[in-house]
């Protein structure tokens, strides 16, 4: 990472209220290198410019900390958080750098992405990160994972009605879904609220905000699990996407 990239990283994180230690900056520098290397070998991320990686992957990932829902308000049960559809490790890896106390399980359906996240977490010394290959539809029905995470965080994975069905099964009652999204339409919100109710969730807050430096529109959606999810959810692989609940 160039000195300009590092300055941008500090500026963006500063606007989120995060002051990085020298060790954390070094971890982000390594993550940047490994991401570029990984992207050269496989279809890992569309973003290749340093500025984009710093702002749209690193800083954007940590906007999930807004409001303190993810890490500060006490995670129900264990401090375990699942990153649903982590891709190349976002938001899981930046989150692990700034919140080493969180037990993070980044999940993705694509093995080569999960292998990258595992290698990268090991290289960065992030031993609390335990990546897992699998589909949410299958893992959400597995007793080892169902209702076992105090938080599910997810960035840019699906529309809210689909996310509700995929994410809520992982939470115990009292757990929270923290969904990082771009701009959200009233229709998506309405359908998402209904889908959440069907799987035991209740919309807690919808917070529109802008990404530091770029000013891009973002929304943080928080859904609380208020009742057990009926056993039939999540439905089998691909069905939540093909036939969203609402
Ligand atoms: N969260 C990352 C980010 O913000 O850079 C990746 C976003 S990418 C657009 C969506 C990812 O979700 C893909 O890597 C895909 O494999 C994964 N995904 C989508 N549906 C999934 C499911 N049902 N179970 C597991 N992973 C899923």
Quick overview:
The chain has 246 residues and is of the alpha/beta class. It is 38% helix and 17% strand.
What does this structure look like?
This protein has a single domain, classed as Vaccinia Virus protein VP39 (Rossmann fold, 3-Layer(aba) Sandwich), CATH 3.40.50. Helix content is 38%, strand content 17%. The chain contains 9 helices and 7 strands; from the N terminus they run αααβαβαβαβαβαββα. The chain has a 7-stranded mixed β-sheet, sandwiched between helices. α7 links the parallel β4 (151-155) and β5. The longest helix is centred in the N-terminal third of the chain and has 20 residues, at 22-41. It binds S-adenosylmethionine.
Q: How many DSSP E strands?
A: 7
Q: Describe the largest sheet.
A: 7 strands, mixed
Bound ions, cofactors and other small molecules, one mention each: S-adenosylmethionine
- The chain-level structural class is alpha/beta
Shape: globular
Instruction: Please tell me the overall pLDDT.
Output: 95
Q: What is the fold named in CATH at topology level?
A: Rossmann fold
Unreliable stretches: none
Total domain count: 1
The percent of residues in helical segments reads 25-40%
């Amino acid at each position: 990472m160039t000195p300009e990239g590092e300055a941008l990283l500090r500026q963006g994180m500063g606007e989120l209220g995060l002051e990085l230690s020298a060790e954390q900056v070094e971890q982000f520098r390594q993550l940047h290198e490994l991401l570029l290397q990984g992207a050269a070998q496989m279809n890992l991320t569309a973003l290749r410019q340093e500025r984009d990686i710093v702002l749209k992957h690193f800083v954007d990932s940590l906007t999930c900390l807004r409001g303190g829902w993810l890490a500060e308000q006490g995670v129900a049960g264990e401090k375990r958080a699942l990153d649903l559809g982590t891709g190349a490790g976002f938001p899981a890896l930046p989150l692990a750098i700034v919140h080493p106390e969180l037990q993070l399980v980044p999940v993705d359906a694509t093995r080569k992405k999960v292998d990258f996240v595992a290698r990268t977490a090991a290289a960065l010394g992030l031993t609390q990160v335990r990546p897992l290959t699998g589909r949410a539809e299958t893992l959400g029905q597995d007793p080892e994972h169902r209702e076992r995470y105090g938080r599910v965080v997810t960035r840019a994975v699906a529309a809210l009605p689909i996310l509700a069905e995929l994410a809520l099964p992982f939470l115990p009652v009292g757990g929270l879904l923290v969904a990082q999204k771009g701009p959200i339409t009233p229709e998506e919100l309405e359908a998402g609220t209904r889908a959440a109710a069907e799987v035991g969730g209740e919309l807690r807050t919808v917070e529109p905000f802008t990404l530091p430096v770029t000013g891009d529109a973002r929304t943080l959606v928080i859904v609380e699990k208020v009742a057990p999810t009926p056993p039939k959810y999540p439905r089998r692989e691909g069905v939540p996407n093909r036939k969203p609940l609402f």
